[in-house]
Design brief:
3 strands, 153 residues, mainly alpha, elongated
Amino acid sequence: MLGEDGHPAAVWRQFFMALWNRTGGGVGVQAGPDTTQALAVETANRIAADASLGTALANETAARTTGDAALGTQITNETAARIAADQVLVSNGTANLNGSIAAEQAARILGDATNAAAISAIRVLALWVNGDVPVGIMCNPDGTPIYVPVAPP
């Protein structure tokens, strides 16, 4: 514990100095700063910070309310614009649809007439089997011919 010179060794001296500081130092010396004053300052700072946060929250709430109202207005306007555009499309689409239906009907009538002409041509080209029964030639899926009787022309 003591060095050759009779004084405490450096390690022990550091230990005793730390112990002396932690336990309040010499007789009649205060152990540390006045915590009452530090607590009062801390309390005042926290109260000010809480008030500042309250104001910031109120401002944020107001800004969000304003933003939500603006967003609601924009959504309402967008909905109205889309409804109007849809009505125009439906109106134009109905006119286009009616035109398309008429074109489809005309195409089908033409197709039916073409099919009737093709059927007549098949009857004219029908083969006579045994000289008295006209037949048309059709094919099975495998390609073999089928002779089908048809009415005479």
